[in-house]
Amino acid sequence: MYKILTLNNISVKGLDCFPRDHYEIASEMSHPDAVLVRSFNMHDMDLPDALKAIGRAGAGVNNIPVEAMSERGVAVFNAPGANANAVKELVLAGMFMAARNLCAAWDYTRNLDTAAPDLEHRVEAGKKKFVGFELPGRILGVIGLGAIGVRIANAARALGMQVIGYDPKITVRSAWQLSSDVQHAASVDDLLSRSDFVTFHVPLNDATHNMINADRLGRMKPGAVLLNFARAGIVDEEAVCRALDAGQLHAYVCDFPTPALLANPKVIALPHLGASTHEAEENCAVIVAEQLREYLENGNVRNSVNLPEVFLPRAGDSRLAVINRNLPDMVGQISHILGKAGLNIVHMVNESRGAIAYTIMDVEGEITEDAAREISAIDGVLRVRVL
Question: How many CA atoms lie less than 13 Å away from 320 in the CB half-sphere?
Fold first, then answer.
């Protein structure tokens, strides 16, 4: 019986992926085998040694201590692309809101005195303040061409916009999906200088923190629109407010309200709605639940942020799964112990990802507790599981 701890409300459709005759699921539980989480901050949690995996029902994992989990041999999974359509639609909505000044216009009309006899006159007079512009022919710059960025780029092309993209690490899969007439920028600065709208879809890390700063804002076209539905820390919000006040930016549309941003009339700040659709929440929950189940039951890894991608069909009588530091002769030492125990390896795979390596071995016969304990004692081994 596997134990799953949920730290946020997880879609029932995702939870239904776990058969209840083999899984216990609860929001309060001691010694869970795995954790299902959305936005809950896990950095200060006291996590038990029994924990084997964490599943993030979403893409970003900033709320999870990934490095510390790697050192403990805990696999961390996410669901990249599951909320891609939801974010794409919100970015498109953001462009329309900014281009047509919709939020300011709606705020104007909702505050009109409906009992006043000149209401119609004031409606007509007020619309002059909110004259906007249309999207066809405008240039959208997309930084980060993963699952979300590619969808946005293709949708913008369908709206008649020109699109410039930048992603030095674009995958072959994303490149195949990207519209062939999306132009490629030479750098972030090149993209910023040519775009009327800029949206970015990159993770928050040391390389992207304050990526949009005062210097880069100064390189943008006067009157450009900046959209941030990625992470708050990618943008220097003080610099953005100054650029808005100076007229350098027409609008800033984001999913991360702060007091400074809410005080600026040119900011459209939404309450973190990026993945807030029923469809996205269900997709994220189902994907990560299926990944957790496959890992717990068979040791296979898909969409992990700290382990290599590994899939091995079952063979033999029992399966050994080992997470270790990526050091020489680890497989040799493990094989030697199995050989001493009279266990023949019939199928195996070994992959690495940076400083971490992962091995699955299927053997003839049963792996004893003594053999598993001896493998655990190898210097550099972080986690041993017999499945």
Answer: 32
Residue 131 CA to residue 128 CA, distance in Å, equals 6
pLDDT tens digits for range 224-274? 999 999 999 999 999 999 999 999 999 999 999 999 999 999 999 999 998
Is the model's pLDDT at 47 over the cut of 90?
Answer: yes
Query: Closest Cα to residue 318, out of 290, 301, 298?
Result: 298
CB count within 10 Å of CB 261 equals 21
- Per DSSP, the three-state class of 41 is coil
pLDDT at 59: 82
Condensed to tens digits (0 to 9), the pLDDT of residues 288-340 reads 999 999 999 999 999 999 999 999 999 999 999 999 999 999 999 999 999 99
Q: Tell me what pLDDT residue 367 has.
A: 96
Q: Please give the structure tokens belonging to residue 247.
A: 């007229």
For the chain, how many helices (H) and strands (E)? 14, 16
- H or E stretch at 5: strand 2-6
Measure the CA–CA gap between 179 and 157, rounded to whole angstroms.
8
Rounded to 5 degrees, what are φ and ψ at 4?
A: -120, 120
Say what the pLDDT of residue 116 is: 87
CA dist list (Å): 218 to 194, 231, 249: 12, 21, 9
CB 139 within 8 A of CB 195: yes
- The closest alpha carbon to 151, from 56, 231, 63, 229, belongs to 229
Tell me which DSSP letter residue 347 carries: E
Q: Hey, which residues does 141 pair with through a beta bridge?
A: 164, 198
Q: Are 381 and 330 a contacting pair, CB within 8 Å?
A: yes
Beta bridge partners of 26: 5
pLDDT at 275: 83
